[in-house]
Amino acid sequence: MGTSSQAADGFQSIPALLQRNASQFANRPAYREKEFGIWQCWTWAETEKEIEAFALGLLNLGVNEGDFIAIAGRNRPYFYWAMVAAQSVGAIPVPVYQDSAAEEMAYVLEHCGARFAVVEDQEQVDKIIDIQDKLHQFEHMIYVDPRGLRKYDHHKLHQYSHVQEQGRAAREEFIEDLKARRGKLEYASTCVMLYTSGTTGKPKGVVLSNRNIIEASKSSAEFDHLHRGEEVLAYLPMAWVGDFIFSIGQAYWCGFCVNCPESADTMQTDLREIGPTYYFAPPRVFETQLTNVMIRMEDAGRLKQRMFHYFMDHARRVGPAILDGKPVSGWDRFKYWLGNLCVYGPLKDTMGFGRVRVGYTAGEAIGPEIFDFYRSLGINLKQLYGQTEASVFITLQPDGEVRSDTVGVAAPGVEIRIAENGEVYYRSPGVFEEYYKNAESTASTKDAEGWVATGDAGFFEEGSGHLRIIDRAKDVGKMADGRMFAPKYVENKLKFFPNILEAVVFGNGRKECTAFINIDLTAVGNWAERNNIGYASYQELAGHPRVLETIKSHVEEVNRSLADDPMLAHCQVHRFLVLHKELDADDGEMTRTRKVRRGVIGEKFEDLVMALYDGSDEISTRTEVTYEDGRKGYISATLKIIEAEVVPVDSHEKVAAE
Question: At 231, is the pLDDT very low, low, confident or very high (cuts 50, 70, 90)?
């Protein structure tokens, strides 16, 4: 696909790669979108024309070089085109989470000083109209879906297709300006600005250059032998760096096709129809898929259940070895082939993973059992470790060296070192330029030599050279007796169980660990229906005695697993409660990428944390919640505090752990 110097000299921007693809891969599919149940397709040549028309329309609206253009909507070709069109005219796209509350959106748009926004529909238009008095530089809004917007004031509100039409009409007037602006783009030019999830404070605007995105895309594509024949499904939030790399960076570098599902509700069906060859999902998606499989198996007949469990036991034993090309006996291979015919193949097709050649998960640690389940089916699922500030890639797992307990080796072009306190540092061509309007945070995160502090604690394994991440450095603490407290490690073990959606473990500075649990309403609700247990709400089901007993058994199973780990045997959960509400980004308890805001939760539910440690059997509480329409309300509940059995750890193991 070209050398690094060729990339620097010939393809110094995403728009330059678009021009190459429109020339070299003109008739190959670039984008597909399912609308009204039918897949629409655009070739690279057609895509280039769509983007050019929108870029000319932006010039017609008065977009200047250096302007910020906010993008808010679900994954649709129009928004990817808008991002590349913005880059083509020298502007900077700023994708925003479409489910952001109006206040969150106001912060991002005001912070970057966006003059323009490209949004999906009436909902997003209304959000920005509501916050417009806070946006001092904001001028024009462009929408894709016109439904419900006919009677709005259209002086500063424009339909996407109309902007394109005006661009085409003014082509002779603006085409030379467009070419000139496109020609000015360099490797050092800003490609995109993405905001961090903001687990500990206000989100920061991460400025990524063309060099960052193209070099990261090029090296990672070569690492996994990606080519223009790949098919990807674009369904993750466009404001997340992973989607930008997969659906813009790697897609434009390799020239492969980006497929956009019709909606979140049809995503599973669309996934099966596309059958992606290259797939990424955070652990939660894989956990949900596995939960759905297990629920379906519980409803299956006895013969199907026996066949499923028989062949899955065999797959767990030999599947990963077969996938990695390791020696396996002929009889075991035959049984695996038979299992693939009867179970694994149909199951992969049902999940939409039948054609996956390379699959990745990242964002949080995935449960080893979940990871091994997918690999045992013959799905080449791997882990990567990355950050927005790294243009995603810090480590990758090479084929044949894939394990659930490490995140692999340094990605191509990446250097990694471990500080004395265990914090992981890296530097690479993908390292971000700066935090926008935040020189202080830039300096504290990235030093003069380009080394970036990840905020994660980890170590390299002796022999293999693989990196193991223990936890967020700020979350790794000490128990009262000085031993290490690593909450995320325990939480991930708890979340392996289909019935548990989220877990928050406490114990820093204390003698023992406790936990909050969120049940998975889908899994537990299905169980309740099969057992003729009626319930009217999440709260009612979460407090049902049989549900509490089931969650207790899961916690105790995790405790037994932890007891075998000398480093973390002391992190067994002694007491827990099942929360009366799901942790929610709208309530500030999680980020938009579903990362737990530990500090917010500890403060908001301080009375519940205290009850876990003061010996109470139950606690009454009242909690503020945010409804879908933005209104606030309160829910009250009396929660039972459950004692979980812990496995005694003898003094020798305690000494080893210290």
Answer: very high
Q: Is 259:269 a contact under the CB 8 Å cutoff?
A: no
Measured in degrees and rounded to the nearest 5, phi and psi for residue 564 equal: -85, -5
127-130: which pairs have CB atoms within 8 A and are 24 or more residues apart? 127/72, 127/100, 127/102, 130/102
Residue ranges of E strands in 466-567 = 467-472, 477-478, 484-485, 500-506, 513-519
Q: Do domains 4-280 and 477-657 have the same CATH topology?
A: no
This prediction's pTM: 0.81
Mean pLDDT, the chain, rounded, equals 91
Q: What is the mean pLDDT of residues 556-562?
A: 93
What top-level class would CATH report for the domain 4-280?
A: alpha beta
Degrees to nearest 5, angle at CA 351 with 257 and 73? 50
Domain range list for the chain: 4-280, 283-428+451-472, 477-657
**Phi, psi of 43, deg, nearest 5:** -80, 175
What pLDDT does 1 receive? 39
CA separation for the pair 586, 572 (Å, rounded): 31
In this prediction, residue 416 carries a pLDDT of 97
pLDDT the model gives residue 59: 98
Report helix, strand or coil for 495: coil
Query: What is the rounded CA–CA span in Å between residue 326 and residue 114?
Result: 54
Q: How far is CA 314 from the centre of its chain?
A: 31
Amino acid identity for residue 445 in this structure: T
Section 608-635 average pLDDT: 88
CATH of domain 477-657: 3.30.300.30
Half-sphere exposure of 591 (CA within 13 A, CB side): 20
- How high is the pLDDT of residue 650? 62
Q: Could you tell me what percent of the chain has a pLDDT over 70?
A: 96
Report the helix count and the strand count for the chain, using DSSP H and E.
25, 29
- Tell me the C-alpha to C-alpha distance, in Å, between residue 495 and each of 361, 364, 518, 520, 573: 16, 12, 9, 10, 14
| Cβ pair 604, 586 in contact under 8 A | no
